[in-house]
Amino acid sequence: MSRHAIVVSGRAAAVAIGVAACSSVHPVAPIAPATTCVIGGPRTVGGDTLSVATMASVDWSHAPEPTNAAERLVFAQVYETLIGVDCDGRPRPGLAASWTLDATRTRITLSLRNGARFSSGAVVTASGVLASWQATSERSASAARLAREVANGTTVIDDHTLLVSLPDTGWLVLAEPALAIYVPHAAPRLPEGSGPYRLAEQSVAAPGAFVLTPAAANDPSLLIRRMPTGDPRDAIDAGVDVLVTDDPTAVGYAASRASLAAAPLPWTRTYALAMPNAASRIGELLLRPDSESVVLRASLARDAVHAEARATQSPLRTADGAGCDLAVDSRPTAPAVNARSNRVVYRRDDPTARGLAERLVALDSRSVAAGLAPNDFIRALRDGGDVAYVLDVPGASLSPCDDRALLRASAPWLASAGGGARLVPLIDTRETAIVNRDRVSATVDWSGTVHFGSGGARP
How many whole angstroms separate alpha carbon 89 and alpha carbon 251? Predict the structure, then answer.
């Protein structure tokens, strides 16, 4: 093994992030990245280009809020938050170089990084940070609610200092991608970011490819290419330097290449089953008080999905605070909604959700699995007229109460206290970063996102 060994730990799970979300620890002086969150080692030369493969497309009209794994990886290089949080839940400087927390631990004063600029060259100011959050709060997107809450609690002290009041959540929420800082522009111009990379003008080198150029001279350029096939092993055969995948076959395939190393990323996604009426046959099996339900979830992780998965380690947890509870993983007392169909519904663009749905309907001959387009899935979930819905929810979060509020808005029937509606966690999943061990130097944040470059909000 070369000196650029992979040392990323897989132990930064949802429980660590859940604690961080309500943290009472005061920030300290910036520290070096934790070795458990580092992929590779320090770069000794600059100016070259890393080839990064994605299995999904990147639609820049979504920036800065990602809608899939490829956009999450790419946008994280271009847009940064005030602070970062590493894979072990520790705060890191981002746009804010330093901060202080008051005695109540609900008000934080942040000082922006000297020389921070957007991609146009414009200086980042505290007023610009607030304007970014206000722009996000007006978007019709899942980020709007959190951005509105933070913007309403922000006071600009001067050009480089702002005070943020967060009485209902932990201060590490400032690392949520929903609070990334940008300068909004009318289409077709892209929002400007202040991160260590920017999209090169006319950078399309081939269909589905583009280049991110670094702000720092010693950082590599990134050639981002979407693979034309759905098999990540093709990316390995093509000689890419970086591939993030949840496909265990591809991880095993990479193990045969001496130039590659694999870094398991944190367990950050949980698949759950939302049931309007948990008195169904499937609900009865999953909510049994004996070990049979535990065995069933383990079999779902092992046999139902083609991804690295495990049975959910603990019930979905909520942060302390009013209005943060859902009817989660307990036996129902009475039906809340009578299902009008026999479908177990999933998003058809999510193969893991499909595998779970198809395995679950095998437990009940009266049910069928139904894959829907994203917008149709959203409408069906809100209506609550099906047997169950397979959901991909955050297993690691800096704003768990906000996540619960969004879920309640998406499925209002889940908030029926004492009724038969239930949200049952099934499995946790994680991705693996496959990298060229001698060329890649990167870090991993709390959400399992890989960051390149030496400046800005790197964990």
Answer: 26
CA distance 41 to 403: 35
- pLDDT reported for residue 46: 53
Give residue for tokens 């193969």.
Answer: 351
In whole angstroms, give the CA distance from residue 278 to residue 332: 6
Please provide residue 184's backbone torsions phi and psi, each rounded to the nearest 5 degrees: -75, 145
* Torsion sign across C-alpha atoms 139, 140, 142, 144: positive
Report in angstroms the alpha-carbon separations of 203 from 73, 222, 276, 308, 387: 18, 11, 48, 34, 47
Residues in the chain, total: 459
Per-residue pLDDT reduced to its tens digit, 384-418: 999 999 999 888 888 887 788 888 889 999 876 55
pTM, 2 dp: 0.84
Q: Which residues contact 219 (CB under 8 A, 6 or more apart)?
A: 43, 46, 196, 197, 452, 453, 454, 455
Nearest in space to 158 (alpha carbons), one of 209, 109, 223, 115: 109
